[in-house]
From TrEMBL:
It comes from the Bacteria. PROSITE patterns: PROKAR_LIPOPROTEIN. It comes from Mesoflavibacter profundi. Belongs to the peptidase M16 family. Residues 50-174, 533-651 form the Peptidase M16 N-terminal domain. This is Insulinase family protein.
Length: 944
């Protein structure tokens, strides 16, 4: 399930503009070319509104069902129920086999999930075209025919899953309680936004079968929903299928609209909270504003960008540059169905007094008032929004989300057209008006979240925030759950046969057409032409990356990539950011383990101008010492912050155990507090010598021809130089096999588990086969790890395994976060599952693996980003242009004996290193019962 505590991500697709991008004009055009998503809408007799969108670009179909019920429909004392019910819906239904909803869809080559937020719940799937009617069957059965199958055992099992989700995302996460504190104090008691979407654990534990049935009968009627089907469909045929599968679902009672008066705060509320996991102080200020679709949301969104969204913005100037209180600052409008909020958020540098941050915000706002709004800034923001419009609807699933959101909450599937117009029409006067009306001199809720025992950093005169915190107890009886017997019930009568329909015609996966060329400077070019939207995405890969960090100064490459984006010889950092923004483009640089990447995206019409900026970044670095100092401080702040994150601790320590501290990959990619301390700007200048084009590769995917690409890239021929050969460092035996390593995070509500071993390189002949052999064990929600630890036992929110892809020998890793008091039981299950894997792998698993991967390929390469990934694989690993087809042949030809050989070579339990990051006081003695040597480490991976 998607994250529950923020407005579901589809609303981020709403803001868009199609304004004038003439680079010589500083005026803002009010004219816009209408952007539309073609669709057909009809309503079934039961009230279900259906929107169909036909798109034959890929042989896939996306289905999204939006229920107009979120946490805002809950009752005090029964919070978290909408999200909990979403989980329950994925269990069983009358005409679908037990467990099939989570297991079968991935096996058909599809993906599925759901999301709940304050106002609604969405269920969605993307499948190959041949499974379209199967999805209609499974989706409609979940919607209209699930309530009779709910058992007490299923209820109790799902409670544990949701509780584990809360522990993972809230209780075990830095700043996880902030949302709860803000909601309790911003909204009056009883207001449906005064509690979090996840709700409270006691409320969840008290849920009964009667509660589940009452909620379903009240809110899950067909008239309280919208259904969108987008993709490779025939509209007339699809109408008939929708009537068959969804037409008999009961309409349900009328759900009355919720109406609440806008929130008014009588005074400023200032609260503090000592966070067990936070290492940095964070200040938030939240002001009540306007709800979604209100005419002022568009200006408030732009206001958020103007205040902090660029290096020229006033809050950035004061907080980051002048006073150096934090690495960044964010301001944004967050609109929901019933209310809206304008948020100021600053995660400050270590030991920073938040009173200073508050004063700096006030100074920044005064600067905004004094300086006003420049036309160029407004133009830049609208150009960026134009690009994000197309990016937001570049896949069939995103189109489905857009259509279903606007239909259910605004009655108009095509409201994106109006949103674009209203956004583009915003003037500087509009922005200043909403600032004066909603922000200036208004009361707010302010939270100071500070590290444990650092109350002195909180804003003066703050009151202590009250938060309910779970106590970890061992052997809690009601947390042990089981599958239980299936429910006994009479099936709901239907005039249709509601048994599983057959597959349709098998869609044929076709590798995209790939072109290859070369520039005179030696840089190789790879491209895929895709004309679905007027966008391009590109990547320049330069071998080396973190491998070229100087010994003892790990983090140079990461810091280098950040500094290179801070201006050019002729442009200040702010000027460079503005030039990119005015094109509606995005350019980034980042360092990975074995490569340095320069990436970008833009509208096709702006590609040539965007490449001119890329050339300037590469050939004319600014070496701004002020920016270097700022970024080094920001890096220090981020590294300090990661020390509070159990997942980050687990990842860093695990790779140190496998590779050893003398190997580059045994050290985090961004370095450590020690390794980065001595880095100077001279180290970055020396690293710059690695930026040579002879071994670099330019990858591009999008609405552009090979000739257009080559013509635009000719200017890069001025970039010259020979790259040096890069040798992969050897790996010494770290002797960690068979041991359990334990890192203490006091009071952790979950234990993070990392289990695995170094396996092979992505260039190894067995690399594909190991990936194939892992599918049944840990490949998504249909994998045994997920099915057992989450579905069967309720110990975790998710459990997976995978193989990292690098030229260097890389690890096979099992990862999960489990309920603290289920740590030992989870370890025992994983140990037994791995030990039995080879023996239990049968011809049935061979066929399941084949079906899952082959069909999954039909949707795996739809997006421009995925197509760029194909090109990067070809260039980095010297793969054939048709390697995807060859991979499929390799999969088809794998025998049961091949799988067993791979498993017995690489997935060997007694060769695995075990790492547990959790609460020592309650779990260390438990872990020792597994019978392996247990070694205690600190959070940096050093023996205690």
């Amino acid at each position: 399930m998607k994250h529950y505590s923020i407005l579901f991500f589809i609303t981020s697709l709403l803001l868009a503009s199609c304004g004038n991008n003439d680079q010589n004009s500083d005026t803002v055009s009010s004219e816009t070319k209408d952007f539309k998503i073609e669709y057909e809408k009809f309503t079934l007799d039961n009230g279900l509104e259906v929107i169909l969108h036909e798109d034959h670009s890929d042989p896939i179909v996306a289905v999204a069902t939006m229920m107009h019920v979120g946490s805002n429909r809950e009752k005090p004392g029964k919070t978290g129920f909408a999200h909990f019910f979403e989980h329950m819906s994925f269990n069983d239904s009358e005409n679908v086999p037990v467990g099939a909803n989570r297991k079968m869809i991935p096996e058909w080559g599809g993906s599925r999930n759901g999301g709940t937020w304050s106002d609604g719940t969405v269920y969605y799937e993307v499948v190959p075209k041949d499974a379209f009617e199967k999805i209609m069957w499974i989706d409609s059965d979940r919607f209209g025919y699930m309530i009779n199958t709910v058992t007490k055992e299923a209820l109790e099992r799902e409670k544990q899953v949701v509780k584990n989700e809360k522990r993972q995302r809230v209780d075990n996460a830095p700043y996880g309680y902030t949302d709860e504190i803000i909601r309790k104090n911003l909204y009056p008691e009883g207001h449906p936004y005064s509690w979090t979407v996840i709700g409270s654990l006691p409320d969840l534990q008290a849920a009964t079968l009667e509660d589940v049935k009452e909620f379903y009968n009240k809110f899950y009627g067909a008239s309280n929903a919208s259904l969108v089907i987008a993709g490779d469909i025939n509209i007339e045929e699809t109408k008939d299928l929708v009537k068959k599968w969804f037409g008999e679902i009961p309409s349900g009672p009328k759900v009355e609209d919720l109406n609440f008066e806008p929130v008014k705060l009588d005074s400023v509320k200032s609260l503090y909270f000592e966070d067990n996991f936070a290492k940095l102080p964070e200040l938030r200020m939240v002001i009540p504003t306007v709800k979604e679709y209100h005419k002022d949301t568009y200006a408030l969104n732009i206001l958020g960008q103007l205040l902090s969204g660029s290096k020229k913005s006033p809050l950035y100037n004061v907080i980051v540059e002048e006073q150096k209180l934090a690495p960044n600052v964010s301001t944004y409008q967050n609109s929901s169905e019933l209310a809206g909020e304008f948020v100021f958020r600053v995660r400050a540098n270590a030991d920073t007094d938040l009173d200073q941050v508050k004063l700096a915000i006030e100074e920044g706002l005064q600067k905004f008032e004094n300086e006003g709004i420049k036309d160029k800034d407004l133009k830049r923001i609208k150009a960026e929004l134009e690009t994000s419009l197309y990016q937001g609807v570049s896949t069939v699933l995103n189109k489905a989300f857009q259509l279903v959101q606007d239909n259910e909450f605004n009655g108009d599937p095509s409201y994106i057209t109006q949103t674009a117009k209203l956004t583009n029409a915003v003037t500087a006067q509009d922005v200043m008006r909403v600032y004066n009306q909603y922000i200036k001199n208004q009361n707010y809720v302010m939270t100071s979240v500070v590290p444990k025992n650092q109350i002195d950093l909180a804003v003066n005169h703050s009151k202590k925030a009250e938060v309910w915190i779970e106590e970890v107890k061992q052997n809690v009886a009601n947390e042990e759950v089981s599958q239980g017997a299936e429910a006994v019930y009479d099936k709901t009568p239907s005039k249709y046969d509601r048994s599983e329909p057959p597959f349709g015609e098998l869609p044929v996966f076709k590798s995209p057409t790939i072109w290859k060329d070369k520039l005179n400077n030696g840089m190789t070019l790879y491209g895929i032409e895709n004309a679905e939207v007027p966008l391009v995405q590109f990547d320049i890969t330069i071998p080396g990356g973190q491998l070229l960090d100087p010994k003892g100064k790990e983090g140079v490459s990461s810091l280098f990539s950040d500094v290179m984006m801070q201006g050019t010889a002729t442009k200040t950092p702010a000027d460079l950011e503005e030039a990119i923004g005015l094109l509606g483009a995005n350019i980034n640089m980042y360092s990975s383990s074995e490569d340095l990447h320069i990436t970008g995206s833009c509208l096709t019409k702006n590609f040539e101008e965007t490449i001119k900026i890329v050339k300037e970044i590469i050939l004319q670095p600014r070496w701004d010492l002020k920016e270097f100092d700022r970024l080094k401080q920001a890096l220090k702040t981020n590294l300090k912050g990661s020390e509070a994150n159990p997942n980050a601790i687990a990842s860093n320590v695990f790779y140190k155990l496998l590779y050893g501290e003398s190997h580059r990959f045994g050290i985090p990619g961004s370095g450590t507090l020690n390794s980065t301390e001595a880095i100077t700007i001279e180290d970055l200048k020396k690293y710059y010598a690695n930026l040579k084009p002879s071994n670099a590769t330019f990858h591009i995917a999008g609405d552009i021809t090979v000739d257009q690409t080559k013509n635009a890239l000719q200017i890069l021929n001025d970039w010259k130089g020979e790259s040096k050969n890069i040798e992969l460092p050897s790996i010494t035996n770290t002797n960690t096999d068979g041991n359990i390593y334990f890192v203490d995070v006091p009071d952790a509500k979950q234990s993070v588990l990392y289990i695995g071993k170094l396996a092979l390189s992505a260039t190894d002949d067995n690399a594909n086969n190991l990936n194939f052999a892992n599918e049944i064990l840990g490949g998504g929600s249909s994998g045994r790890l997920f099915q057992t630890l989450r579905i069967g036992k309720g110990y975790t929110y998710g459990a997976y395994s995978n193989i990292l892809e690098r030229k260097a020998i890389s690890p096979f890793v099992i990862r999960t976060s489990v309920r603290a008091n289920a740590t030992l039981k989870s370890l025992e299950i994983i140990k037994e599952m791995v030990n039995d894997y080879e023996k239990s792998f049968t011809e049935n698993e061979v066929e399941l693996t084949k079906n899952k991967i082959l069909k999954g390929n039909t949707r795996a390469f739809e997006s421009l980003g995925a197509q760029l990934g194909i090109l990067k694989d070809i260039s980095k690993y010297d793969k054939a242009v048709d390697f995807l087809d060859k991979n499929q042949e390799e999969l088809i030809n794998m025998t049961l004996e091949d799988y067993k050989n791979i498993i017995s070579t690489y997935i060997v339990e007694d060769q695995f290193t075990y790492l547990v990051v959790g609460d020592k006081a309650t779990q260390l003695e438990e872990v020792k019962k597994l019978g392996k040597p247990v070694i205690e480490l600190d959070i940096y991976g050093n023996e205690k």
